[in-house]
Amino acid sequence: MSARSLTWQLCLRLLPALALLVAAAVWLGERWLQPAWAIPTALVMAVLLWLAVHHATAPLRSLMRALAGLTASYCDGEFNVSVHWNGDDEIGELARAHMALGQVLRDQRQDLVQRELLLDTMIQNTPVAMLLTSPGGDGADRVVFSNLAARKLLHGGWKLEGQRIDALLATLPVALHDALARSGDSLFAVPDEDDEQIYHLSRRRFQINGRAHELTLIRLLTNELRRQEVHTWKKVIRVISHELNNALAPIASLAHSGAELVRRGKAERLPEVLGIIEERARHLEGFIRGYARFAKLPAPQLQTIHWASFLENLRLQMPFEHLTVDPELSSRADPAQLSQALLNLVKNAHEAGNGKHVQVSVEVSRQQDWVRIAISDDGSGMNEAVLHNALLPFYSTKRDGTGLGLALTREIAEAHGGRIALANRAEGGLCVTLMLPLQGS
């Protein structure tokens, strides 16, 4: 409400009193004055009354103008203006409420500025390159925001804001250009003078003020991957050293014992000693062969596999139960690799009872464009820690385990374009699920 409108509202509220006053003035004028002076006297009194009201409401109108200006300042984001009113009436309460609102907005603005400063400092100093893009007025994607890491990686440290993405891509190395040009997340390598740098790229899309934006994050993974590679090699060396020591120490001891038996002329025990040496040597040979197989898994040679006959052939090598399989269900896979993977899973399932008899079943079914192979047992299952690490190479809870069985099965599944998952069954035991493409990778 404007100050002028407020004055007229007050005058309208005083209209009945004004009318009564005019009527009284007319009556008094007719009685005490000449009739010709009655109406002019009433008009003069009405004007004087309006002037008195206008003068009385001047401070209030001034306050209303100040409050209107204050509200306009709030809308413009300016919170340093305030008003003051002397008095404890309703108008004073309104003025104090506006001042309190201004103080709250000032505090919030200061807090927001500090948060924005902190966020900008963190974003600018993070080693992850951050690039925010949005379609411009010409329809071409342009850079809206970039941090220091993005400027160094993509533009030699120069400003990127406002540049067209297609023009920027034309100046980048081939690997980086291809990674940014294609959609989705990716892992790529950029050659440099001495080595190559490995990066991970991820994208996220969202709306800002009704406009589509895309945030691209590029993270350098070279150092982290090298640390993981060193850690893995150390673990491999520890496992191999452990197995070699477990095999070579008995062989050396038994060879010494055999030599002593020959020296003493007790050759009748030599076959036993040589048999143990042969057993330990074959165990070591199998261990080395397993590592070589895992390290040099060849690309799968895809053939059509009919699951009904394929499972019957597997049962001849290792027993298990299976539900009826659709005789028409088939896949494109490498028979040798798939047999190795499934036999390994069935063998693990039989060993899940720790010496007790375990019921093992294999169920094969079709789920849309996938073939689902579920190997279930009623053993003891796995705890959460083992479930989390079971598919990692060299991880094993068995005393004589190499930690390569499940890892090799995972490699075979992924080489076929599939995946593997482990989960404890509600009724007890473990279920290992292989998902393979229906028509092969």
UniProtKB/TrEMBL annotation:
It is found in: Membrane. Residues 54-110 form the HAMP domain. Gene3D superfamilies: 1.10.287.130, 6.10.340.10, Histidine kinase-like ATPase, C-terminal domain. GO terms for cellular component: membrane. The keyword Hydrolase does not apply. Keywords: Kinase, Membrane, Phosphoprotein, Transferase, Transmembrane, Transmembrane helix. The keyword Transmembrane helix applies. Its main location: membrane. It is an enzyme of class 2 (transferase). Residues 239-440 form the Histidine kinase domain. GO terms for molecular function: phosphorelay sensor kinase activity. InterPro entries: HAMP_dom, HATPase_C_sf, HATPase_dom, His_kinase_dom, HisK_dim/P_sf, Sig_transdc_His_kin-like_C. The chain crosses the membrane at residues 35-53. Its EC number is 2.7.13.3. Pfam families: HATPase_c. This is histidine kinase. It comes from Stenotrophomonas ginsengisoli.
